[in-house]
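Box 3.1 A note on notation
Throughout this textbook, protein chains are presented in two layers. The first layer is the amino acid sequence; the second is a token string describing backbone geometry. Keep the layers aligned when reading.
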Amino acid sequence: MSHHTVEAKNLQHVYPDGTIALKDVSFRIMHGESVAIIGANGAGKSTLLQHLNGCLEATTGQIRIGDTPLSRSTLPDIRRTVGMVFQNPDDQLFMPTVFEDVAFGPLNLGLSGSDVDRRVAEALAQVGAGHLSTKPPYHLSGGEKKRVAIATVLAMSPDILVMDEPTSGLDPHARRQLIALLREFQHTKIFTSHDLDMVLELCQRTIILHDGMVVADGATEEIFLDDALLKECRLEKPFSMQGCPVCNKAGQHHEKHGNCLSY
């Protein structure tokens, strides 16, 4: 299953205006790992994710998917392996109807007829959006667009799922649906998120980016217990690990103060 691995080696990205977004970023993610890439705004998270399926080209360094280095010649094969969900769903939805948007990927894989219909129905059902099939994407709410954008990637049956801020714009019910869906996805998962409770729930491993550099890479819970590291990187613990402001107890319900959060 080596084709499910993702490796960045000495990756650097400099934008045309001279901004250095990534500085010597290296890591290796193995098959089946669920890995969060977190950091404050401007840390380089979205830039990094866009290198994983060739949306951005590295200034120096290399991305490898399995044994295959990412290049212009290998890009079509890599994009069949790595499914990317962008932070803004409007970057992915461009067809007249939801069905056509979700069908676009399978059609480009050479599928047709009932195979495409099945892929679309299954992907929309997975995100709870089957009822949106005939709607124009521009008529959807932000949360509905997000779910459909995820379905466009799931319809491709990727081996590696890459998602930029997957829960942004989702209401609590849709968020729980997405977390359940990601938990069921058995292959490699990589995502950025400010939703650190979701990170704690889904990811055994977390990478912190700060000013374009990897400053931590390790067990998620250990990273969230490192107060000095979080402060340096302008991050806070997940809400479920923070103390209650009334009773000063973390992750516990206090009988005297019924307004404390219970996790």
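The radius of gyration is 19 Å. The first helix runs from residue 45 to 49.
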